[in-house]
Amino acid sequence: MILHGNHRIMLPALGRDGDGGLRRRERTGIFQKLVDHRADQLAVELHDDILRYFQLHHLLFLLQLL
Q1: In sequence order, what are the beta bridge partners of 2?
Q2: Is 39 within 8 Å of 47 (Cβ atoms)?
Q3: Where does the chain show beta strands of DSSP type E?
Q4: Which DSSP symbol is given to 5?
Q5: Tens of pLDDT, residues 2-38
Q6: Torsion, Cα of 15, 44, 9, 60 (10° steps)
Q7: Cα–Cα distance between 49 and 21 in angstroms, integer?
Q8: Alpha-carbon distance 30 to 47, whole Å?
Q9: Of 20, 27, 54, 55, whose CB is crowded by the most CB atoms within 10 A?
């Protein structure tokens, strides 16, 4: 969850296993593992992009106060 002013923005939590890596689905086959790995990468990239957007939005808001 991100707090932004009076707004709460809920972001999906990224599941993590014990060693800090992204949780893997229990599936077999090299192709399925590649698809799962790419899906995890895209989820992390999207999460990072959303955080960057709100950080920029917050910075612009603070600059307007000057």
Answers
A1: 9
A2: no
A3: 2-4, 7-9
A4: T
A5: 445 555 555 555 555 454 444 555 556 777 788 888 8
A6: 150
A7: 19
A8: 26
A9: 54
Angstrom distances, CA of residue 19 to CA of 15, 16, 23: 12, 8, 10
**pTM higher than the cut 0.85:** no
Which tokens sit at 27? Answer: 């599936």
Find where tokens 């949780």 sit. Answer: 23
Helix (H), strand (E), coil (C) string for the chain:
CEEECCEEECCCCCCECCCCCECCCCCCCHHHHHHHHHHHHHHHHHHHHHHHHHHHHHHHHHHHHC
- The span from the CA of 62 to the CA of 23, in Å, is 37
Q: Which amino acid is at 53?
A: Y
Return all residues near 10 (Cβ < 8 A) that are at least 6 apart.
Answer: 1
